Amino acid sequence: MNTVPTKVGVADLLKGVVAMVPDLPSMARHAPGLVFRSGDKKNTIGQIFARLAADHPDRPFIRWHGESSSYGEVNRQVNRYAAVLAGRGVGVGDVVGILSKNSPTDLMVILATLKLGAVAGMLNYNQRGHVIDHSMSLLNAKVLLTDPECAEAFDSMTPTSHPEHVLDFSALDAAAEGESEADPAVTATLPASTLAFYIFTSGTTGLPKASVMSHNRWLANYSGIGGLAVRLRPSDTMYVALPLYHNNALSVSLGAVLAGGACIALSKQFSASRFWDEIIENRATSFTYIGELCRYLLAQPPKPTDRRHSIRVIIGNGMRPEIWDEFEQRFGIERIVEFYGASELNLAFVNAFGVKRTAGFCPLPFKVVDYNPDGTAKRDERGRLRQMPKGEPGLLISEISDRVPVDGYTDAAETEKKVIRDAFKSGDAYFNSGDLVRQIGFSHITFVDRLGDTFRWKGENVATTEVESAVDTADGVSGAVAFGVEVPGCDGKAGMVAVTVDGDRPDPKALAAHLYAELPSYAVPLFIRFVPEIEVTSTFKNRKVELRDAGFTDTGDDEVWVLAGRADGYVPFYDGYVADVAAAKAPR
Q1: Domains in the chain, ordered, with CATH?
Q2: Which of 133, 186, 182, 181 is nearest to 157 (CA)?
Q3: What is the per-residue pLDDT across 513-553, written as a single tens digit (0 to 9) for each?
Q4: Do the beta carbons of residue 258 and residue 33 sit within 8 Å?
Q5: Which of 15, 331, 528, 583 makes an SS bond possible with 561, Cβ 3.0 to 4.6 Å?
């Protein structure tokens, strides 16, 4: 059965509780950390890691291409890196920009930054030019650490965007030789309220916003998702092919590993064809996913390694109900721990009870309310919000309180735009998730869709205004409207742009090259529709909705191009393109 559950009952919860029994002792250790978190308590990621390294120095912590480094060994190198950063003036509250693909060094410089009470600014290495310059301006970093694998992104930066100190990993290693291996003295003094990460997310402005994550909010992942839901054991290894600038890897995966005192196996980047081979090579028992990753694995031809692994539990978000059972059965997965969350959101849902095809439950206060087409909450004649009945889609909003604060973005004005005040009574405040969900009982939800001017593709948020800006600057284009469209067999929504031109059509290869240069690869639109005109009157939003509803199938006489890939650029729409996208054969 591949239908979405309409309700969660007592029997579902009891079944989940029975499955938890072997892990109850470890769960009991983590439950207080979820319920009684305090920003004043001396509890940070650096302190947790240092304690594990002191208690279990010989236990494997990082695995890379099958080779392990122990907690003690990694901790000593982390401390040497921290000494280098401190020597360049990095202290509590300072920002260290990190531009890197997954590697042991990447994770170690993150931990080194956190041990100093500094903020790890996690740059997205897919960004280029003015976009990554904008991200750097938000960070106001004291030091920038760069991975040679990210040279293209680094070289596209304007030199004036660089901080005073820029070190590539080779220079960092050279500087770290002979530095102190002792834990920095400041680490033990840091409260949980200390800022930990800036994580970039696309917003409706069209340029990235840096969401803020404190150690205290990261600890909710550590205790709630890691300790109570994933429940790794010291003998477990979690394989992570998602980038460490992504919250699934940085917070969910790292939190689950440290909560269990387990090992993290890193892959530089995801490969569907090598995935199970790398799982086996790294002796992994768990991995992190996004929905599209699971689609790609199912699209691979069956092979013996589909079942020759030791995976027993996976954690992620975006596992669509229609593939849940197939994925579980084909690859022999015991538990799928689906969750729902966002970098800037002050709560998360997690499938701790194992209720299939749901995003799980959340013990923190939230509401599902009526909404407007633009993604705002709809107010009644009294100016208050109306909750949606169970089972009906509505806008998810989370209560803001001293117990559950919002870290928001680096820009306070951007944070305030997402806050709904006087929602149900005077003086209350809620955070607008921008997402549609259904509440199905016992604080469980199922995800429905995203609202507003962003859509999600390849596990990343794409801002339509950023895409429109890039298309508008292409030769021959006079106007553009971007939106997301559903592609059968794929998660999220693919980019589509309605375009007007001055005369002849632009060169299809040149257009693709321009967009690849201006946008991250996941944001390059798959579909280009040439339209006679684009309304820019007060009815413009309705026109955009009509274009989105028409998608790439109901386009009348308008010409539609599709993205074949970097080499071939755009080509005329052809039968079979949608199937190629679903099978990860296009774009290439």
Answers
A1: 10-350 (3.40.50.12780), 364-436+446-450 (2.30.38), 454-583 (3.30.300.30)
A2: 133
A3: 999 999 999 999 999 999 998 864 332 333 677 888 899 99
A4: no
A5: 528
